[in-house]
Amino acid sequence: MTRKKLNKFLFIGIFIAVISLGGFVLKKSFENNRCANTLSCKESFIVSVNNDEQAIFNGKVIDPPDIDLAQKSTEPHVLGSESSMGDKHIYVDLTTQTLKAYEGDTLFMETKVSTGKWAPTPTGDFRIWTKIRAAKMSGGKGADYYYLPNVLYIMFFSNSQVASSRGFALHGTYWHNNFGHAMSHGCVNLRITDARKLYYWAEPYTSENESKPASKDSPGTLITIYGEAP
């Protein structure tokens, strides 16, 4: 074989290897960055109220709660004020399906939650990067399809490994009452009353029904998620 032909075969081999490696990297990149709510991540980041729509979950049609964003919060604003008790920290234990929120060493609340069943909830340390008063979430395919308008008290979290664009959040849940068991597509489901309490306590602080991103003056509360879903 001549040197010219050898170089040609070498070039083709390298080209194929580069294309294969590129495809693998792109696939992994997609897997690491795809949206937790596969059909509506962009919509989930925008405040929206759809009182005339019905929800679909687990093949069942459900009436979502009506929302009036003009209605004032029933939570006292002292929950969102500065405190000398210490930093706020939320812990989510996947093994026991339990959430605990502390201010310094003082336990603020403890409640059962539902984490990822159809897709895993990520583990690690996160920060709440924005809070949305109400939005729509949807995703899945076939029997796994879900469409959830009027999801309440959403606290989106992220870190350097889990991008904010993936849409993981703590949020209120009206489509099931099976807390203490994995039931979500990756988010952390809370009872609406618990989500409302946590929403007005956690940073970034909000006034009434506004939605707000984290900032230097009001950074997002730290969330630690650990354990393994049963």
Polypeptide structure, described:
- Pfam families: YkuD.
- GO terms for molecular function: peptidoglycan L,D-transpeptidase activity; transferase activity.
- Keywords: Cell shape, Cell wall biogenesis/degradation, Membrane, Peptidoglycan synthesis, Transferase, Transmembrane, Transmembrane helix.
- The chain has 2 domains: 1-33; 36-226, L,D-transpeptidase catalytic domain-like (Beta Barrel), CATH 2.40.440.
- It has helices at 3-33, 41-44, 192-201, and strands spanning 55-57, 60-62, 88-93, 98-103, 106-112, 124-139, 146-158, 169-173, 188-191, 212-213, 222-226.
- The strands form 2 sheets. Strands 3, 4, 5, 6, 7, 8, 9, 10 and 11 form a 9-stranded mixed sheet that branches. A two-stranded antiparallel ribbon has the order 1-2.
- The longest helix is centred in the N-terminal third of the chain and has 31 residues, at 3-33.
- It is of the alpha+beta class.
- It is 20% helix and 30% strand.
- Residues 4-32 and 77-84 have low confidence and may be disordered.
How many helical stretches? 3
What CATH architecture label of the largest domain applies? Beta Barrel
The main pleated sheet reads as: 9 strands, mixed
Q: Radius of gyration in whole Å, from Cα?
A: 21 Å
Strand content: 25-35%
Overall pLDDT level:
82
According to CATH, what is the topology of the largest domain? L,D-transpeptidase catalytic domain-like
**Share of helix, binned:** 10-25%
How many individual β-strands? 11
The ordered H/E elements are HHEEEEEEEEEHEE
Which CATH class of the largest domain? Mainly Beta
Low-confidence stretches: 4-32, 77-84
- Our measurement of the CA-to-CA distance between the termini, rounded to an integer number of angstroms, reads 61 Å
* Total domain units: 2
Name the CATH homologous superfamily of the largest domain. L,D-transpeptidase catalytic domain-like
- The shape, in one word, is globular
